[in-house]
């Protein structure tokens, strides 16, 4: 039984200047960032919890303020009470009588407990856990084809990736049709016809434009088009989904969906063929599990979004839980992987043969994202060493 109380909450604005190298580029110039939360306790073993909300640079300070606004719901809470009633604790955080109108989710830290929940299901899963331990969970790479990468960079990365076992690739599209055609042809020629290609428009188009644009890219045989229009347009996605059926192209959506209600509507409207939940966008593990269960009910494969700071480290637990305890299937299932910024985490995700390796039970953290203290100090905005140098150069 967990003992002690939460004695301190701190939150930091961390930003990594990924835009300088074009990493993460879709139709923006993101600096991958996070509101980084540390919970300290008075437990005898010094138990701490680490969590993040992924952002893209500007605006991270808003999330930091939101964390501070919710802090009173967390401080001085008894850990035993939290573990004994996760549901009640979750609802307290998401249902503040005054904040609920402006904050749907900010804080989601389970203090190392969720993976023990996963362990508790093992032995009842018909050998699925052994399969994960032996072979891992299949991944796809987005790191080969960011929008601002040059053709030479695309060629280099798409040549190297198959040597590491990669067979599934995603390319960013939507800025310029002729450029998309050239990039998709280049990548398809590099990876060959037998490998899987996905496309991601990052909400670029309106509905008719999406159908027309994707139809012109159909020759490259994409498995799906991701976020073809506004993530709030559920019926628009349903229209696109129906129009692309004759082309054999599915719709993938979900990284911007913030709760189970949006996913319920997308599923009911038959607006997606691939569900892309995001471990930071959804408000906690509680919300994520609800979405996994609905996906199972509607027989829609879950292919989580994981392109961002710490998302791979979090989502690895959710995909394992989904396979072992809910879906029991890998058909049309894969999880996104990007290889940027892993060096900043104390327990980075491990990829082997293009698959997520199941984390070990001893010596590694559970469902949290502890960063190296040196990285935190360097990348804190605006006073960290990295940002002092960059901001000084901008002023000069």
UniProtKB/TrEMBL annotation:
One of its GO terms (molecular function) is L-fuconate dehydratase activity. Residues 151-246 form the Mandelate racemase/muconate lactonizing enzyme C-terminal domain. GO terms for biological process: amino acid catabolic process; carbohydrate catabolic process. It comes from the Eukaryota. Keywords: Lyase, Magnesium, Metal-binding. It catalyses: L-fuconate = 2-dehydro-3-deoxy-L-fuconate + H2O. The keyword Magnesium applies. Its cofactor is Mg(2+). Its EC number is 4.2.1.68. Belongs to the mandelate racemase/muconate lactonizing enzyme family. ENOSF1 subfamily. This is Mitochondrial enolase superfamily member 1. It comes from Molossus molossus.
């Amino acid at each position: 039984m967990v003992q002690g109380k939460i004695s301190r909450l701190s939150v930091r604005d961390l930003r990594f200047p990924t835009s300088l190298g074009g990493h993460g580029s879709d139709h923006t110039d993101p600096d991958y960032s996070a509101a980084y939360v540390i919970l300290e306790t008075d437990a005898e073993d010094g138990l701490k919890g680490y969590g993040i909300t992924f952002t893209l640079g500007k605006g991270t300070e808003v999330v930091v303020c939101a964390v501070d606004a919710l802090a009173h719901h967390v401080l001085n809470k008894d850990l035993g009470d939290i573990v004994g009633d996760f549901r009640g604790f979750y609802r307290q955080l998401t249902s503040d009588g005054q904040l609920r109108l402006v904050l749907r989710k900010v804080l989601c830290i389970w203090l190392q407990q969720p993976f023990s929940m996963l362990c508790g299901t093992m032995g009842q899963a018909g050998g699925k856990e052994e399969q994960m331990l032996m072979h891992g969970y299949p991944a796809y790479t987005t790191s080969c084809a960011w929008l601002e990468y040059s053709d030479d960079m695309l060629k280099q990365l798409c040549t190297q990736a198959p040597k590491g076992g990669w067979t599934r690739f995603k390319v960013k599209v939507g800025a310029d049709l002729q450029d998309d055609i050239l990039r998709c042809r280049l990548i398809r020629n590099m990876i060959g016809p037998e490998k899987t290609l996905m496309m991601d428009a990052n909400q670029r188009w309106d509905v008719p434009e999406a159908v027309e644009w994707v139809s012109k890219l159909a020759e490259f045989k994409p498995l799906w088009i991701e976020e073809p229009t506004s993530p709030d347009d559920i019926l628009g996605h349903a229209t696109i989904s129906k129009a692309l059926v004759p082309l054999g192209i599915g719709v993938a959506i979900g990284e911007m969906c913030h709760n189970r209600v949006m996913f319920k509507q997308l599923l009911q409207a038959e607006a997606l063929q691939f569900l892309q939940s995001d471990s930071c966008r959804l408000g906690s593990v509680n919300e994520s599990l609800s979405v996994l269960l609905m996906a199972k009910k509607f027989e829609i494969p879950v292919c989580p979004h994981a392109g961002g700071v710490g998302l791979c480290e979090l989502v690895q637990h959710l995909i394992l839980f989904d396979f072992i305890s809910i879906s029991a299937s890998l058909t049309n299932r894969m999880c996104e992987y990007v290889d940027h910024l892993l060096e900043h985490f104390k327990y980075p995700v491990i990829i082997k043969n293009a698959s997520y390796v199941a984390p070990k039970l001893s010596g590694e953290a559970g469902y949290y994202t502890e960063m190296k203290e040196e990285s935190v100090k360097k990348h804190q905005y605006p006073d960290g060493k990295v940002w002092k140098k960059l901001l000084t150069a901008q002023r000069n």
